[in-house]
Specification:
Elements (H helix, E strand, L loop, with lengths): L3 H10 L9 H10 L6 H10 L2 H12 L11 H25 L9 H23 L3 H10 L2 H9 L1 H14 L3 H9 L3 H11 L4 H8 L10 H16 L15 H7 L3 H25 L1
Helix pairs in contact: 2-3, 2-5, 4-5, 4-15, 5-7, 5-15, 6-7, 6-13, 6-15, 7-12, 8-9, 8-11, 9-10, 11-12, 12-13, 13-14
């Protein structure tokens, strides 16, 4: 194994090999950001690659609650959901195609299922309790564990050692990566978000999810820990982590949640689990 600093530098250098997001996702993101991209250009890109739009329409029409009528075109979907809502549908489908690998005992289908559930829970926290931006919270939830998948793709031998250590010591992937490699997978994910041109708030929240007080938006970063805890209570632990489902009480204070709020959050998770399963099924 390389020295820690050399290994970490090598992994970050290999991020240059990270595939670009599909043109359709990039165009949606420009529309969300208020860029000059025209609606006609979005439709033209969709026409060049029909596979992703077709999956997006399957996802919209299969979701609960169902739309008031069958959505048969990207135009209709854009009117119904807006650019930000449509980006939240396109990104998980695109990422599953970009990072499809599997390495025992790490199952990428399960990884993306957990990520999809976390994204939905994050969005509901923002909508119902925190009053944050739901689509931004969704992207943070979807990508909060991205660094785990990136380490698998960029340094599989190092990834295997981290997984083995986390399993043996019954700890989190994050703690094992810091101990073995001197590398935070959260930094890796944040750098990928930057390279993909995502909102800087997304990368910042992911980078500081284990120390929310350091984030530019502490509540957005704190959502990651709460979401991971709620998922673990439903037996959906973050892939690669073997620690117990403990919750930092500071997160509760940061989000100003009470016991009744947590109980209401627990009640919404079954719907997010169903949506996560649908995303995985549609992506195949």
């Amino acid at each position: 194994m390389k020295p820690q600093s050399e290994l970490a530098s090598g992994v970050f250098e290999r991020l240059q090999e990270l595939p670009a997001l599909p043109a359709l996702v990039q165009q949606l993101h420009r529309l969300v950001g208020g860029g000059p991209a025209a609606h006609a250009e979005l439709m033209a890109i969709a026409g060049q690659d029909a596979a992703l739009p077709a999956r997006m329409l399957r996802l919209i029409n299969g979701a609960a609650p169902k739309p008031p009528f069958a959505i048969t075109s990207l135009d209709q979907a854009l009117i119904l959901l807006g650019p930000a809502g449509l980006e939240c549908l396109a990104l998980p489908l695109a990422l599953i195609a970009l990072l499809p690998g599997r390495s025992a005992p790490f199952n990428m289908s399960y990884f993306w299922f957990h990520s999809a559930v976390a994204a939905g829970v994050n969005r509901e926290i923002a909508r119902r309790f925190w009053r944050g931006e739901p689509e931004t919270a969704y992207l943070v939830g979807l990508l909060q564990d991205l660094g785990t998948a990136l380490l698998l793709a960029l340094a599989p031998a190092a990834f295997g050692e981290v997984i083995a250590t986390a399993s043996r010591e019954r700890t989190s992937f994050h703690a094992a990566a810091l101990t073995i490699l001197g590398l935070s997978e959260c930094e890796l994910a944040a750098e990928a978000c930057s390279r993909w041109g995502l909102d800087s708030a997304v990368g910042d929240a992911i980078r500081h999810q284990h120390a929310p007080e350091l984030a530019s938006d502490p509540a957005l970063a704190a959502c990651c820990g709460l979401t991971s805890h709620l998922c673990a209570l439903h037996k959906i632990k973050a892939a690669g982590s073997f620690d117990s489902a403990a919750l930092d009480r500071g997160i509760i204070r940061q989000l100003r949640l009470e016991g009744a709020s947590l109980r209401r959050l627990m009640a919404i998770i079954p719907q997010q689990i169903a949506q996560g399963k649908l995303i995985i099924a549609v992506a195949r």
